Amino acid sequence: MIAKGDEVVALPSGKTSKVTAIDTYDGEIEEASAGQSVTIRLDDEIDISRGDMIVKPGNLPRVTRRFDAHAHIVWMHEKPLDTEKAYLVKHTTQTVRAQIDKIHFEVDMDTLEEKQADGVKLNDIAKVRLSCHRALYVDDYQKNRETGAFIVIDTLTNNTVAAGMIALEGSDQNIADVMKELHAESAMEPKTFVSPNERMERFGQRGATIWLTGLPGSGRWTLAYALERKLFDEGRTATVVIPVGEDLRSMISAAKAVTDAGLINICAFPSPTRTDRDKLKERIGEDRVIQVYVNTTSNFEPPEDPDITVALDQMRIDKAVDLIMAALKERGQFDA
């Protein structure tokens, strides 16, 4: 209910004012309730935009960027939930970038009991932790269905993939807590709109780094470009990352970026010590690195357990390429 003379708060500005008049098509009225279409005139000039909310000081919504373990969703799409990507959440008239950080449990539809779940697929109901790029003004679903519900939208297809309702726990917020939350930074860690699984579907391959180690003159560069040619001829997306003028740290960063993009990255950076190669695996991920030791005889700390060892003075370059291709296939890099 809203009535003439009521004090109100506008969110997210936090500015207060009083209702001076309530207008309808048929004329001015003394009070209005949910479901009516009205124009509210305020005593002060407050800049209020679509998605903002007018509330009473003693009846504030919960203002939060994270529905921490309180959001129940029904998954409505054939493509399962992907926690590696960001989605859009539409709540009332606001649409914000969001991601589902954690699946707490799934509801067993036969027994209605909670059960552990690694994923959420079509028609599943689950309790999740959802983080938003900016704060939303929410209520418990049982108290207010309009502000207690939301939908989840896929950013690439614009399809509605889930519907959710909010069950709040904990104490109410005062206006100071509300303003602190509104002005806080995003609750989200940076996350792509395109997940590794979607890149896999598009490219028909998983991102990988093929790191060729060995001394200058060992044939690493010849092998790198021959491998790039072979991958290209087989319809794969690969590139050689050239380390001219770069140090190990910048090369690892470049290799990780290319791998994250779903490409096969080939690098012939020397990295002569085990410490160098350990840094590479730690940053990119051991399961995404194939270490190829181009064998040499001196001044080099050979890897203790390379994925592949080739000696180009003892085998043809095409044979070495075939060995690496076989290793990629064995790892499932091309399993769509």
Care to describe what's here?
With 336 residues, the protein is an alpha+beta fold. It has helices spanning 175-182, 196-203, 220-233, 248-260, 274-284, 317-330; strands at 2-3, 7-11, 15-24, 27-29, 31-32, 39-42, 53-55, 62-75, 87-91, 94-107, 114-115, 125-138, 149-153, 160-166, 208-213, 238-240, 264-267, 289-294, 308-310. The strands form four sheets. The protein has a six-stranded antiparallel beta barrel with strand order 8-12-10-9-13-14. Strands 2, 3, 4, 6 and 7 form a five-stranded antiparallel beta sheet that branches. A five-stranded parallel beta sheet has the order 16-17-15-18-19, with helices on both faces. The model has no long low-confidence stretch (mean pLDDT 87).
Described by the principal axes of the CA atoms, the overall outline is elongated
Q: What is the third-level CATH name, the topology of the largest domain? A: Rossmann fold
SS-based class: alpha+beta
Q: Kindly report the average pLDDT value.
A: 87
Radius of gyration: 28 Å
How many domains make up the coordinates? Answer: 3
Low-confidence runs (pLDDT<50, min 5 residues)? none
CATH uppermost class of the largest domain? Alpha Beta
CATH superfamily of the largest domain: P-loop containing nucleotide triphosphate hydrolases
Number of helices: 6
Largest sheet: 6 strands, antiparallel, barrel
Order of helices and strands: EEEEEEEEEEEEEEHHEHEHEHEEH
